[in-house]
């Protein structure tokens, strides 16, 4: 039996999360709101840390070097502001927290790549809600058609 806390946390979890590991190079699609406009901004970098992977507060830290300066961002995986996470490259690492990558530049910062099925990891399952909406909309149309037929019969 689930506790009350687990039920509440389950409501806020996303149905599908991409399998992300430390050492992956990822593209994080983040929603940015500027005034009344909303757009998607992509942040591509190396995953150096993942915390609390099974929790609704799971967080991934992504690092990239931009203009000679290292930039790190932490993203909550289940946040509504994170639209999508896409794995670009998978590397072989033996640690969970790659803090040593902060000190590395140039060739020493390279990680050896590992072959992986990019389409299978980044594929999103079909939306269950859309399927349910389609079935309910067809069910709603049938009674409307039946009402039209009864009014036609009554008119005659």
Q: What is the CATH class designation of the largest domain?
A: Mainly Beta
How many strands?
5
Count up the domains. Answer: 2
Task: Supply Rg.
Answer: 23 Å
Please report the distance between the alpha carbons of the first and last residues.
59 Å
SSE-based structural type: alpha+beta
What composes the largest sheet?
Answer: 5 strands, antiparallel
Shape: globular
Estimated helix fraction: 25-40%
Identify low-pLDDT runs: none
Give me the oligomer status. single chain
Strands across the major sheet, in which order? 4-3-2-1-5
Strand content: 25-35%
Outline the secondary-structure elements.
Elements lengths: L3 H9 L12 E10 L2 E15 L7 E8 L2 E8 L5 E8 L28 H5 L5 H28 L1
Antiparallel strand pairs: 1-2, 1-5, 2-3, 3-4
Plain-language structure description:
There is one protein chain. This protein is an alpha+beta fold. The chain has two domains: 4-125, SH3 type barrels (Roll), CATH 2.30.30; 127-156. The chain is built from three helices and five strands. It is globular and about 50 Å long. The N and C termini lie far apart (59 Å). The model has no long low-confidence stretch (mean pLDDT 83).
């Amino acid at each position: 039996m689930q506790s009350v806390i687990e039920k509440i946390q389950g409501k806020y979890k996303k149905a599908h999360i991409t399998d992300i590991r430390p050492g992956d190079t990822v593209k994080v699609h983040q929603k940015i709101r500027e005034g009344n406009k909303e757009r998607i901004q992509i942040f591509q970098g190396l995953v150096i840390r993942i915390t609390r992977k099974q929790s609704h507060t799971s967080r991934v830290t992504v690092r990239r070097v931009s203009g000679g300066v290292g930039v790190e961002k932490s993203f909550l995986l289940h946040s509504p502001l994170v639209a999508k996470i896409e794995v670009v490259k998978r590397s072989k690492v033996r640690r969970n927290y790659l803090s040593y990558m902060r000190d590395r530049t140039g060739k020493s910062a390279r990680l050896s790549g590992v072959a992986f099925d990019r389409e299978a990891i980044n594929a999103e399952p079909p939306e269950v809600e859309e399927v349910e909406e389609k079935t309910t909309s067809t069910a709603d149309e049938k009674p409307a058609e039946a009402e039209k037929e009864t009014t036609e019969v009554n008119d005659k």
